[in-house]
## 1
Amino acid sequence: MKTPYRVLCLVVLAALLHLTLGWEWTAAAGLAAGYVLPRGWLAGAVVVSLDYLVFTIFSFARDAAAVHRMTETMGGFLGNMPSSVVVALTLLIGTLIGASSGAAGTQMRRMVDLRRTPADPAR
């Protein structure tokens, strides 16, 4: 399977996990991306940030006024930040979650590969 299709499948997985189990579980899709794709931290960051971006766009398309009020309120809590900065911080947090879980997926793949190596003949 080509890499763009894998990324698309992993973004769909992230969206399903986000919808069914909560935003925290998007890290599992980042972990899977790090396991199956090269440059795992980047793959995890792309997969999870695309998930966050899709849900942000969907939220604005569904009810822009309510989302704008929410981001203005959160911006007020965070020291009078503009609402666009609150959205950018949300996407940045998603990217960081994806990058860290993708890096963990890469390490998990390396651990599994180590177990597949033949035993040392000197033993």
Note: The chain has one domain: 3-115.
## 2
Amino acid sequence: MKGSTFTVIIIIVAIIAIIGMVGFIFLKNSINSQLPSSPANTAVQISPVVPVKDFAPNLPMSQKATILIQTSDSSDIKYIVPADQVSTYVKSLPAGYHVVSQTP
């Protein structure tokens, strides 16, 4: 009787351990399947904060234009300039800088 009780307890503990391992594997696989998949060799692109330079702080926004400039090192800068002086700012950009977008 004593040996059979011990055997039953061992079997119950083994069953609980197996169920726990199977549950852990199932939970781990379900969490991994919910994550967005990306190839191992590609880097995740994080959108950087674009610095803003306001060259007309005293003017209302209705009288300003926004110019998005890409620098020679491929970083972006947003210039806020008076709407009537956009061409002046674009012409005075340093070498390697170019306009990406412009809003009136």
Note: The chain has a mean pLDDT of 82.
## 3
Amino acid sequence: MKAFETKKEKIHWVRIKDGRLCYWNGEKELIFDEMQGFITGVNFKDDEYQGRKYTEAMFTMYWESEKYFFSVNTATSYFRSFCNYLASADLTKSILLRPKITEKDGKKNYSIFVQQDGRWLKAFYNKDNPGFPQLVIFEVAGKKIYDNTEQIEFWKYKLLNQFKYKSVDNPIDDLPF
């Protein structure tokens, strides 16, 4: 017996790499097309890489008593699309998420699609349901600059409020006895 035995919960860290989900198992990267689970919370972490500052959204997910942190940079289309589809989901049920890169007219589009109850969810905010902050576009030295700060702040506020009152940490262990 150890003097100070602790039972540390194993947490799996998942991120997006080249349009697919990437998980480091301690030896190598494992690549997946999709993942499934119950989202129970979100946290935001400010970080820096090679002198560039960014904010990471870390979604806590559970699947079959395993805990996952799915992290995504808030300044990406992945984050904004995921939040828009997630807004249409019932968070008391499991979701399946699938990142995707599509190309149209030489321009790449990055998205994370969400499936629930066997059907792909529609984006909550769209042409028929406006109310989402638009990109701020301005010109500097003849070049268009797109500022998505208002959109990111909108989604951070919505997510933090959405998970604020969620009390179940692990939906699999939520038994009445």
Note: The chain is about 15% helix and 45% strand.
## 4
Amino acid sequence: MVATTFRSDVAAGLYGLLTGFVAANPTMLNAGYRARPRAFGNRPLGFVGPRNEPSIIHTSGTRQRNMSPSIVLVWGWNEEEETADVRDDVVDAFLDYATARPNAVSTGTQTAPTSTEDVELEMDGAFYPATIIAFGETTILEGRQ
């Protein structure tokens, strides 16, 4: 069987989507990263998050991989009302940007945001507000020998 680059291809596509948003909206996010950075110093920032594969289906001669990738946006510490409004505006703008680019991962794949979740991420003993933007299932069908 030929080795696949499915996971890295999805990461590259999402990273391109994220950095395109940063370039088009430089006042909304300071930086985009292909993976979780070692520090959250350049907030607000975004990174390509987990790429969970909740199902991998094997049949005679094929393997279907179903991935649920995500992008994570990380904010500053304070959650004042004004900061929360800005956070909501950035999430809304990113959702619009991503929805308008359904082939961001590849020309043969439809990828669109399907949910958001506000969370706190821990790093070095500090907690940072973040929003996880989940994308719908991204699927590849691979031949097997």
Note: The chain has a mean pLDDT of 86.
